[in-house]
Amino acid sequence: MTDFNNVYAQQLRVGDTLPEFELPITARLVVSTALASQDFQDVHHDKDAAIAKGTPDIFMNILTTNGFVGRYLTDWAGPGSRIKKIQFNLGAPNFPGDTMIMSGEVIELSEDGEQQLAHVTFKGKNGMGNHVSGVAVVQLAHPAGHGGNAS
């Protein structure tokens, strides 16, 4: 059976850090992800409208932020993982021309029946400060031969 680079509970310790992920924020990213999530608010695709409403440029929407947080966590944990719970707060907007750097840390390891869970704090920081910060519970994949997978 292929591993697919899953992270397993026995490989982790409380205090382990997740690899950083850098996301360049471009106007194309902000506009395309807003439209893909059917968010037609003008502040996400019309620079003049955004400026008229008091911001220096268009900015990333919350659905896009949530999607990139999910991607960050599941890219780290692997394709056999699943996000079971997530809570986050928004801070500084993500404007084009900046970069959001995602980071995280394992704060607890637990079990729920046969499920192995990693409790993780995360943040996405840009040049203005934290864009997003929160905590998630990630169900990890089962090792081959130990109860199947997370799906």
Task: Describe the model.
- With 151 residues, the chain is of the alpha+beta class.
- The protein has a single domain, classed as Hotdog Thioesterase (Thiol Ester Dehydrase, Chain A, Roll).
- It contains three helices and five strands; from the N terminus they run βαααββββ.
- It has helices spanning 27-36, 47-52, 62-77; strands at residues 17-24, 82-90, 99-112, 115-126, 129-139.
- It has a five-stranded antiparallel β-sheet with strand order 1-3-4-5-2.
- A hairpin with a 2-residue loop joins strand 4 (115-126) and strand 5.
- The radius of gyration is 17 Å and the shape is elongated.
Task: Briefly characterize the structure.
With 151 residues, this protein is of the alpha+beta class. It has 3 helices and 5 strands; from the N terminus they run E-H-H-H-E-E-E-E. Helices cover 21% and strands 36% of the residues.
